[in-house]
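ESCALATION

Customer reports they have been waiting on this structure for their group meeting. Please prioritize. Original submission:
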Amino acid sequence: MGQVPDTSLAWSKLKPESSIWTGRNAHGSCVYNGKMYVIGGHTDAYPTYDLQLNDKTADVWWTEDGVSWNRNLLMEGDFFAQNHDVVQPGPIAPFYPRYGHSLDPYDIDKDGGDDIMILMGGFAPNTVNDIWVTEDSNTWFYVGEAPWSPRAWHATVTFNQTLYLMGGTPLNREVWYIKSVKLKTDRPAPLTRAMFMDYTYEVEWGQLEEAPWSPRAGMGLINQPYTGTLSAQTERVVMIGGYGGWLSTDERFDGIRCQSDVWVTFDLMNWTRIADSTALGGLAWFGFSVWSPDETDADHTLWVVGGGYIGDEGNKKVSVMQGSVNSYYSKDAVNWVRTNYVLGGGTTALEQYSSNEWTTTIIDGNLMFLGLWGLTLETFQIWGESHKSLYILGGDQDGTGTLQDVVYRGENGLLCDIQGIVCGGLGQCSETIGEGCDCLGTGFSGTYCDVDGGDIGSPAPQHRMSWSVMVVISVLVSWAIVV
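Update from on-call: job pushed to the front of the queue and completed.
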């Protein structure tokens, strides 16, 4: 393979102390009341209780530390509505096995504390528009069908204490929001021998005008604390990429593929396209989260991990998912910085390499570096720790790779490396979590030792750039020789 530069540890693979969920992608995940959840998803085919093969799950897993995972084995709820013929209570939830659904915490009374989790839609196996609510992840209430049409791979976001749902497949650009969630205690008993609850919830929905972006699914949608050029910090919703395009009946049709545009809104009604394309390229089904080690940052940092590309544009058609091996961050959602070192792959003659630890796998005894898509990315703080961390959950490797059953936690390398160059080639990555680079008295400062402090004798910025270029050139040469 040749020589590659030494990089900081960016992602550590967490080894579970007990059983963990099976490999999957398109699962639902969220953080709710001090626990991180993984629910449902697409898996390898397995025999179910009735000896049928299924590649979707209806299991519920949670962790308090990212390492020890627990499965709910005695779930209760409204089995009468869907899974009426499974063991009750048992390890299979009352809702149909599914993937491509959404899972969100929700604050009913707007007091700052989440009261329920809401699971919506997905492939089960066809697209559905059902809504399920739980207070404790163990008892699930069937709320009924939503007014929006059945869909999967839609996106959700909480903005100003309101939960919004957008897009999805069948491809659309609808924007829906929850007006209220109320307890319903006068529920009539259904005629069934299956388990049911004597109360449930009612969800009232509202709909806004369609968004101006093209219909899509699998996009990134997130609430970002943001200042930018504003006088004070506020919140904005950022929408990135996704698979879709204008439909063939629309005069703007130019193919269906993974998109590269970026849109923002401060009120969910007025959208602004701030970029037609970015360094991310066309991308969908990626991990998307907000994480800043310093919670006082005016603009919290956006992180994009993995993802995939598929689709057509003119005569160019990509029919097999091309997974990404990269991790990026951005403050403004336009200018993205790749943290990892990457070489080869694509149309080059070089074997693909990425310094991201989550890309490594062994296939037929050979070390390979594969892209990952259909993962989720959560920001989670373990009880007793002073900082939050990023967590990669599951996903599907491209090519000959497999569905993943592993968890990776973000480490200091995310705060030290830019394209594999550690601390600008001057400092070293601190061992103190959340502190990034130690510039070692070089006369430079800043997150990546990229601010010249003016010390006499300090290396000039152009020298550091030359060092970076020299590393890349030397590695390219060494790889070319080996190949």
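Sent to customer with the following note: The first helix runs from residue 461 to 482.
Escalation resolved.
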